[in-house]
Amino acid sequence: MARKKIIAGNWKMNMTPSEAVELVNTLKPLVTTEDADVVFCVPAIDIIPAIEAAKGSNIQIGAENMYYEEKGAFTGEISPNMLTDVGVKYVIIGHSERREYFAETDETVNKKVLKAFEHGITPIICCGESLTQREQGITIDWIRQQIKIAFLNVTAEQAASAVVAYEPIWAIGTGKTATTEQAQEVCKAIRECIAEIYDDATAAAIRIQYGGSVNADTAAELFAQPDIDGGLVGGASLKPDFGKIVNYK
Ligand code: PEP
Which residue among 41, 127, 167, 245 is best mutated to probe the pocket of ligand 1, counting the most ligand atoms within 8 A of its Cβ? Predict the structure, then answer.
């Protein structure tokens, strides 16, 4: 069965709740496609107003982060139950900015992935190499390691429903998109790694996004690659241009 594309926006630390409502209202009429799942991953405080604003549209609202404990003395964190209680079905896990500025590691990513599945939330699991790693020629080894740790103790059934976002760190927010060949090469390697961990059916089912300065001009070619099932979009998800990315065909 063909994999349904998934195009997700990552708003990062942008948009107040009132701005969030405005942006959802602007984009709503542009997001009519049935061919792709469209998810806006928004700051925690924007989740409820964005869900309200997105009602009656194809836009789904996701979170940008989640903690791996159920509840308790973890000041500032958001629990899985808090997300499911308001209807959140997707959460970004292990974005490179969280790894860089908030000390997330492959191990905490794995804990969060397991917890998200336990609560029926689909994780969008981020991986990606630095420019130095790419120049050293260790991109594929690095990504394979990130994937293997992220999926530790994840069942094949869970893995089949997961989303992986391949985001080369040097391409995030820099305006430098990986070439189509570079993006396809790594997404294919991720799929092969999933086939090794699990089996061909799981590898054929899992959805793999490319992320890194995707815009309305680059989306169509990237998303047409055999192993790229959509994108995780930062900067361009904050503009009406996101409508063009969603309708990339
Ligand atoms: C991201 O934040 O996941 C991202 C890919 O950002 P940008 O599209 O701005 O590079």
Answer: 167
